[in-house]
Amino acid sequence: MGNRSAADADRLLEGRGPGTGGGAGTPAAAAAAALAGGVLLIGAVLAGNALVCVSVAAERALQTPTNYFIVSLAAADLLLALLVLPLFVYSEVQGGVWLFSPGLCDALMAMDVMLCTASIFNLCAISVDRFVAVAVPLSYNRQSGGGRQPLFIGATWLLSAAVAAPVLCGLNDARGRDPAVCRLENRDYVVYSSVCSFFLPCPLMLLLYWATFRGLRRWEAARRAKLHGRPPRRPSGPGPPPPEATETPEAIPPPEAVAPPDAIPAEPPLQGSKRRRAKITGRERKAMRVLPVVVGAFLVCWTPFFVVHITRALCPACAVPPQLVSAVTWLGYVNSALNPLIYTVFNAEFRTVFRKALRLCC
């Protein structure tokens, strides 16, 4: 164990996942804390995300396009808890020393990259789907029966697997590799995976959410103006067109004829033509309100990790404390346990279904 200092210093250069712990000199108290925290984290991730999947599958009210993506996100978190976290926690308990084969390490690194990438790609797919639903609702409704959501979800997982595939194809099998350290060995790949998994999707996702909620506010303002018999202003930005300015108050339906909140038309029908009315249901709009919280939690948890991650790859001489590396890695994994809590706090329908499920279990 006296030779571990050199390996520990080298371990600060690059990598993610196991092998980023506090070093071989981790005291027994820290190892016990890592074990207890890891068991609690794995249990919380498994219980919470399994509850999300079961709730959406069993409750018809939760089977909305947005929630299908949320189930895909929960599936990524479940796989993380089953395939990545146990080995990560074991390595942390061992002070960051990898005791298994290099092949298992490569599989672990690939799975870690793929599942993290799948999480953010699912969030991006939600942002694209919501943007289309608000910007062109008639077209969205006409195509909603064609399986857009399964197509998007399948694409997110295929792209995630493509980002992680080089690790399994021998990229991580570097010459002079230390078998006691599990990490990504190629600095160029560290930069590539960080850009593909985080630094490119995040700005795109935030831009799409900004446009989506701008369009939703525009539509709501147009609908209120129509109900009050006033021609609305026509602001710029995406979203369905406002009601025709030529409409008179007599053409406005009485309050009792207005659709209920859970079936509000996203675009008023054109006069003199018989068309299907595009709708953004009340449930969909409630689900959309939760999304900024989910995205915000993801960014808070994973941004520190990726900043440290890419800094070590681009600046090998920079001194990064192993305690900081371990802390940001744990913070990233904690995000997998947060989403079910967010749904419980911010979505009344999820909260009701969760209560029912817990009563049945207990």
TrEMBL record:
Recorded superkingdom: Eukaryota
PROSITE patterns according to UniProt: G_PROTEIN_RECEP_F1_1 (PS00237), G_PROTEIN_RECEP_F1_2 (PS50262)
Keywords: Biological rhythms, Cell membrane, Disulfide bond, G-protein coupled receptor, Glycoprotein, Lipoprotein, Membrane, Metal-binding, Palmitate, Receptor, Sodium, Transducer, Transmembrane, Transmembrane helix
Chain spans, region Disordered: 225-278
Role description: Dopamine receptor responsible for neuronal signaling in the mesolimbic system of the brain, an area of the brain that regulates emotion and complex behavior. Activated by dopamine, but also by epinephrine and norepinephrine, and by numerous synthetic agonists and drugs. Agonist binding triggers signaling via G proteins that inhibit adenylyl cyclase. Modulates the circadian rhythm of contrast sensitivity by regulating the rhythmic expression of NPAS2 in the retinal ganglion cells.
UniProt record similarity statement: Belongs to the G-protein coupled receptor 1 family.
The protein, known as: D(4) dopamine receptor
Organism of provenance: Odobenus rosmarus divergens
Source lineage: Eukaryota, Metazoa, Chordata, Craniata, Vertebrata
